[in-house]
Fold:
Amino acid sequence: MPHDDHDHPHALLPPDPALRVKALETILTRKGLIDPAALDEIIDTYENKIGPKNGAQVVARAWSDPGFLEALRADATAAVKDMGFYGRQGEHMVAVENTPEVHNMVVCTLCSCYPWPLLGIPPGWYKSDAYRARAVREPRKVLAEFGVTLPDETAVRVWDSTAEVRYLVIPMRPEGTAGLDRDALAALVSRDSMIGTGLAVAP
Structure:
């Protein structure tokens, strides 16, 4: 079999994904095909500018603006685009709301499809084989490992992202937040709460 041939060039790549990425980056840089400074800028943009702060603004607005929440339910792609959040990996958005009856959780079982314009770069655990397999088979166990314990009467619904559809979880609004403005509300929304592996933080 070709994959068993240890002289094959692919067999020379390090097994760890981070090392493989670094090896590929080094090769491409030496060939003059990429600029490391440009890569750093792209990563910084997705981590700190495009990152989860965008999604948190969407959630905060959904909590405080019933009209926007209805628009989000009807067409999340258009609703978030109106806020200026769109682009690659965010073309087909669906918002799913957590309620006392249903807790939503997102996974991509095939690879790591993820709404970059709203949540930034996917965390390492989201891309791991363990999360991708176990989130579907034993979601309550996985949630417990993230520190989320739900009442028995709350159903867990797992959504599988694809190249066609990305999901944004709208976590439940914490109690005691009636007087908070949108910026204060957004500060209560974590990346994990918008994947469904966390809850919004109480003020």
